[in-house]
Amino acid sequence: MNKWFVPKGDDSKVLIGEPVNNQVDVGAAVRKGEDVEVTVYSGTSVLDAGSPTGNKATIGRILSPVTAQEAGTIRCIGLNVSSSRPQPLSTPPKVLRFWS
User: Domain limits at 45?
Assistant: First the structure.
């Protein structure tokens, strides 16, 4: 799956790429500080990623799957996480693992 990302060591670029190893959990690996090598694509949107350029890069930071211009307006309505926990005295999650 194609991802928007900022390459490691160059915050001035935003690229689209696909992991070289399709078995890697990209989000978990980047969060752990592991290098994730990707094949860079020619497109300017994950909605139209283009084709592989033959270049490789390492992900420094993963970005949103769509740009602000592509998304338009996003409205989120949901429950407050602290009030929707199954047990009132339970510890809140460090990473919210679901969206509704």
Answer: 3-72
- Count Cβ atoms within 10 A of the Cβ of residue 66 and give its class: 0-12 exposed, 13-18 middle, 19 or more buried: middle
DSSP state of 25: -
Q: Which position has the token pair 């001035």?
A: 12
Domain contains 29: yes
In a domain, 30, yes or no: yes
Written as tens digits, the pLDDT of the chain (100 aa) is 567 777 787 878 888 888 999 899 988 999 999 999 999 999 888 778 889 999 999 988 888 777 777 777 766 666 565 566 566 556 666 776 665 5
User: What sections of the chain are H helices per DSSP?
Assistant: 26-31, 68-71
| pTM reported for the whole predicted model | 0.63
Name, in order, each residue with C-beta under 8 angstroms of 90's C-beta and a sequence gap of 6 or more.
none
Based on the structure, what is the number of domains in the chain? 1
Name residue, tokens 């490691």: 8
Nearest to 44, CA basis, from 35, 36, 53: 53
